[in-house]
Amino acid sequence: MNSIPLEMLGLLQDWRIYAAIAVTGLAGLMRGYSGFGTAVLLAPAYSVLWGPRIGVPVMLVMELVVSMQLVPRAFGEANRRVILPIGAAACIATPLGAFILITADQDLLRRFIGGFVLVFGLLLTSGWRYHGSRPLALNLAVGSLAGLLKGATGISGPPVILYLLAGPEAVKQHRANLILFFGSIAVISVIPPALGGLIGWTTLAKLLLLLPVLMLCVPIGARLFHVLPEPWYRRAALCVLVASGLIALLA
Length: 251
Hints:
Layout: H1 4-12, H2 15-34, H3 38-50, H4 52-77, H5 80-103, H6 106-126, H7 136-153, H8 157-164, H9 171-195, H10 201-224, H11 230-250
């Protein structure tokens, strides 16, 4: 078995790690600014570069570390009455989705991830949102769907984001809601890949190179939240989502 230093040396000789570093930096800025963006950008990008069984576990561990960095402040600002039931349902459903990640055809799964992100980006661009009420039963249903998607693809955000963004909360609380949701599901999401043998030396070597990039860019993005006009960010983020979905779908 290769050691981590040998794995890292091999990575540094591969152009894909430099593409991953660039995308990771952009994802960190998105996550710090908006409260989401890590999974929907990195899951398709990493799946194209290394395949879902490597790319998704790398992204899940990075998501866990970033979530723990942002959750403490968001906990006091979020609408916990809505978010905690969604997060609990998602945690229960995530291991079921992980079975798909471990057993599904990798090329088919990569294309599904790309198509899913592309549809999500187009829905955000169209301005469509859910405008109904948010009863407990619907919160649990949305959380369950998000958990299945998280386990299978690493991406839990789209149904939750579309569901929550039409709510009555201010922008600051919307952001806190998303951060708290992603934090609640981050811990459970890494357990099935670890038990399934998907987190090994190759995954750890990539993490050592990519995680510092993400950790550096998230606080920069959080500072930009207070100075960058929201329409600028929104247009740029939507373009990135649509492009990443297309690349994963067609590659």
